[in-house]
Amino acid sequence: MGHSKAERIEIGRRIYEGEITKYMAADEYGISEMTARDYMRLYRDVNRLPPKHRGESDAVIKEKNEIDPKQVMEEINEERRQLGYDVDKTSGLYFMKRDECKVIEKLSKKYSLTLLCDLIGMPKGTYYYWKRRNAKLEQAEAERQAAHNKKNCCDDSGEQDENQKAQENPETTTEQ
User: Fold this and answer.
1) 74 to each of 39, 122, 139, how far by Cα in Å?
2) 151: Cβ contacts below 8 Å, ≥ 6 apart
3) Which DSSP category does 64 fall into?
4) Per-residue pLDDT tens digits for 42-83
């Protein structure tokens, strides 16, 4: 029982505007809940409407819509510059995901994670993956540095002891 594109868009409109839920649409039209959700997304995409987030007030949604993506992109590029990237080059521009996660993490206190990931072009799942990976890499680096410092601390003190003995007894070192 296929629905025409116009019917799918109408079903999507009803869901998007809150006339019915996707569960009610599934029962009423004999489709799955996932299909009902897809119809709602189709309606939203055809009409270029923003996603509706459950539990957010209209004031919060309006505030999010008032954010200027160009301004946010300028802040992203400023953070990139601080990491040492030449963001003024338009061709061959590549930012390491590890560093992009640092940019997102820093700016996520000010902007939504979804907005930042969309502007940078990174899926949220990739962000979370690299965030976990960065934490593991930083922990491994800290452990390696601590081991290196411990090794050098012991080696240096041993060398210092030999140098100190040589200075105190110059005769013993020359005889050997």
Assistant:
1) 35, 17, 31
2) none
3) H
4) 999 998 888 876 655 555 555 566 778 888 888 988 888 888
Contact assessment for residue 22 and residue 33, using Cβ atoms and an 8 Å cutoff: yes
Separation CA 35–CA 109 (nearest Å): 35
Distance CA 44, CA 38 (A): 10
> What global pTM score does this model have?
0.45
User: What is the spatial distance between Cα 130 and Cα 101, in angstroms, rounded to a whole number?
Assistant: 7
Q: How large a percentage of the chain has pLDDT more than 90?
A: 23
Residue 37 to residue 15: CA distance in whole angstroms = 8
Indicate if the pLDDT at residue 150 is higher than 80.
yes
What does the pLDDT look like over 118-131, one tens digit per residue? 888 888 888 888 88
pLDDT at position 176 is: 45
- Residue count of the chain, please give it: 176
Half-sphere exposure for 176 (CA within 13 Å, toward CB):
5
Type of residue numbered 19? E
The structure tokens listed for 81 are 């510059």
Tokens representing residue 39 in the block: 């119809």
Of 44, 51, 39, whose CA–CA distance to 8 is shortest? 39
